[in-house]
Each structure stands twice: as C-alpha cells, then as structure tokens.
Write a structure and sequence with these properties.
The protein has helices at residues 25-37, 56-63, 69-80, 99-111, 134-140, 151-158, 170-180, 211-220, 272-286, 332-339, 345-357, 377-389; strands at 10-14, 51-55, 66-68, 89-93, 115-120, 149-150, 184-189, 202-205, 225-228, 257-260, 263-265, 291-295, 318-319, 398-402. With 410 residues, it is α/β, with parallel strands linked by helices. It has a 6-stranded mixed β-sheet, with helices on both faces. A 5-stranded mixed β-sheet has the order 1-14-2-12-13, with helices on both faces. Strand 8, helix 8 and strand 9 (225-228) form a beta-alpha-beta unit. Helix 3 packs across helix 4 (99-111).
Length: 410
C-alpha cells in the first residue's frame, strides 16, 4: 500500500550564474533547474504544473534594459516641453519615497526641467512610507484630505521625520537631489492630484497604482500636459553615439530600479516570449508541462513599517497561460466547523475529500470558500517567490515551486 503524502506546497530558491547583458536566459534557467534537480542532497523530481519563476531583475539585465539620467532628462524635456520652452516648470506629484525606486528617476526629471514643484502625499506615500504619523496629524489639527501644506508649514508642525528603516529624511533628500541636478525646487504636501495646478499646468504624475485616476482628474481640471512615469521612456531613445536607451512600451519608468548613481534598470519588456521558450525547453528536458513566470515585487504589507511591498506596476509582467485566473478553493476549517461538525477522524477526512472532489468550477458566493484569498494566481505565486528569493544576497533569482495546485485529496 502506498504511503500517504504529507507534504504540500514546496518553494525552492535555485542558484544560477550571475546574469549579464546578452546572456542566454532560456538555457541558463533551464540548465540551472535541471542541475538542481540532480543534486544528490537537495534533488527533486519534476511533475506537471510545477512552476519555474524568474525575478524580473535578471530578465531586464539579460535584455540590457537600462537608461541613464540623461535619457530620462531628454524624454522629459521632449514630452513636457519645459526646458526647451515655456517657463520650465514641472509639477512632479505623488512619488514614492525610495532611493532605489525613484531617486535616480527624479534626478533625470529635474535635469530635464528648470524648476520642479514636488508634491508629496502625506502622512505616507502610496506604498506606506511614512512622512508623519496620523497621531501627529491629529495633534496638529491637520486634515490630510483637504489641507495643502508648504514646506515651511510642514517643518513648523512636524520637524524632521527620518524613515524608520533607512534613517533618510526624504523631504530634504529629494529637495537636494533636484537642486544638485540644476533645477529650482518648491515642495508642497497634498493628497489631491489637482492641488498641483495652483503652481503649474504641466504635470508628471508619479503614482503607480492610482496613476490612471490622477491623469483623468488632472486633465479634467485643466492641466495643459499631464503624463505619468509610464509615459517616460516608453520607447527607445536615440543617443548621440548611435546607441539606444532601454525602454518599456507599457510601463515606461514604472518598475525601474537603481543600477548606478546615473543609471536605472527598467522593468523587462516583452518577456512573454521568454517564459514560453523556457516552458518549451523544460518540456523537452523533463517531459512535463511546467508553468513559467517572471515576477517582481510581491503584494503584501509589512505590519511594523506599514509598507506595502508592491512598488512594481504588476507582480508578474509575463507568465504562461496556465497561471491565468484565481484560486478556486474550499475553506477546510469552514467545512470542518459547519458542514461536518458531527464527524471526526477518517469519516471527517473522507467527507472533506469528497467535497473537494465534487466542488463547483466557480465557487464565487459559496460560503464554503469564504476567507480564501480572492487574488490572481500570479499575484499569490509572485509574492511567494519574492519572499523565497529575497532582495539581498541569497543568490537565488530562480524559484521552483511544486504542489501549488494540489489540494487535500492529492
């Protein structure tokens, strides 16, 4: 008699060579996963619907998808028309507070303008980095939904508020970056996108997940030009030396990361062909239909720092078709506490197993699915991958997941 399977989902970080521009990522990923499976101590077998995930960082690196501060400045000037004409002022609104994600972009934006009016959201940015606590707002009698604060008023009421994890005063840091890039700067604090129109009619909105609404509100309120970070470097730029900048047709600068003090690595472009090619090569090598995805930030919130991790425009910019959709799961504890409260032991196990086997293909509205996570598979799996690989020196930009689509009956 076969033994009962006692292991569910398993997530493994897979090490591979350091990826450089031009590397054959299809072969490297496939070979690394195969080599890991053959390791005497840590090896594993392959199954249909296993998942191979690759961090977006190495995909963009292999593509050579980089842009310089000068590339950003050139595109900003061309599209907002501020340095080559007009009064040279841009409203830069609602950015996140991040040296890695936004600081180098801001240098490029400032280099393409004469003056930046920087509008920061408060008490925190879009992903939860705090400029001031809600308690401090209450004490000062400030209403973040309506009040617009000058830099002077912010300092008078709240002083300096270094980030609890980095120790950086982002208000000073961003202001200094703009000045160092050769532009004048004025800083205000407001949460309504349209507040910037009292200062300038040419606006670059830098929010990530609310950008479409911000653009709509600004356009309706009379902005002359309104663009988002997704509109900057959404096509390659010709450089003076004949080379071309990196780009992302869908997301532009969104999802970019600091590479050096003068260069950002953009979100990977057109990665769909990559995941499909890896899936094909894995099928030949293993005989199994393995799903493949590219992942970036996970979608989860840190309860202590209050930071929502997702600074990328999406968790997964590319994935094979088998990863589309949302989970369709029953809540085991609901079944145990309600439908089968009178059962225990093997009878309970058999009843729950039968419920799973006979469940509807769409459980929306079914109380027995209440409390399961109603999110896209790619968001859930990408979050698991992000936690597995980490963002530091683990050296595992590939993640191999098994058993994700199994349930209690497998």
């Amino acid at each position: 008699m076969s033994k009962e399977r006692l292991v569910g989902t398993v997530s493994r970080g897979i090490r591979c060579p350091i990826i450089r521009e031009g590397d054959d990522l299809v072969s490297i990923v496939t070979d690394s996963v195969i080599a890991a499976s053959e390791n005497e101590e840590w090896g594993f077998n392959f199954h249909d619907r296993d998942i191979v995930a690759i961090t977006e960082s190495v995909v963009a690196r292999a593509q050579g998808n980089y842009a310089t501060v000068d590339d950003i400045a050139k595109d900003v000037d061309a599209k907002l028309g501020v340095k080559s004409g007009g009064d040279g002022t841009i409203g830069v609104i609602l950015p996140i507070l991040s040296r890695n994600r936004f600081a180098i972009c801001l240098r490029g934006i400032a280099k393409g303008a004469k003056k930046i009016v920087l509008q920061l959201s408060y008490p925190s940015d879009e992903v939860g980095n705090e400029l001031v606590s809600l308690d401090a707002l209450d004490e000062a009698g400030v209403d973040p939904y309506s009040d617009v604060l000058s830099l002077e008023k912010y300092r008078e009421l709240f002083g300096s508020n270094p980030h609890p994890f980095t120790g950086v005063d982002y208000v000073s840091y961003y202001g200094d970056l703009i000045k160092e890039a050769g532009a004048d700067v004025e800083i205000i604090f407001a949460n309504h996108a349209t507040a910037i129109l009292d200062y300038t009619k040419r606006v670059l909105t830098c929010d990530i997940h609310t950008r479409a609404r911000s653009k709509r509100l600004l356009a309706a309120a009379g902005a002359e030009v309104v663009l988002g970070l997704d509109d900057i470097l959404n096509a390659p730029l010709e450089r003076a030396d004949g080379s071309k900048s990196g780009f992302n047709a869908q997301y532009g600068l969104l999802g970019s990361n600091k590479s050096t003090e003068d260069v950002v690595k953009l979100f990977p472009h057109d990665a769909s062909s990559l995941v499909n090619e890896i899936a094909k090569k894995l099928l030949v090598a293993t005989g199994k239909k393995i799903e493949v995805m590219v992942y970036g930030d996970g979608a989860f919130k840190d309860p202590q720092g209050k930071i929502w991790e997702l600074a990328d425009p999406v968790v997964s910019p590319a994935h094979t078709d088998g990863l589309k959709g949302t989970p369709n799961e029953l809540k085991l504890k609901y079944l145990a506490d309600n439908d089968f409260a009178h059962l225990s032991g093997e009878e309970l196990k058999a009843a729950i197993s039968e419920s799973i086997k006979s469940k509807d293909s769409d459980l929306v509205g079914n109380m027995a699915s209440e409390g399961t996570t109603p999110r896209q598979l790619t968001d859930l799996i990408g979050s698991l991958c992000d936690l597995t690989s980490g963002s530091g020196d683990k050296g595992t930009p590939i993640v191999f997941i098994q058993g994700y689509f199994d349930n209690y009956t497998n």
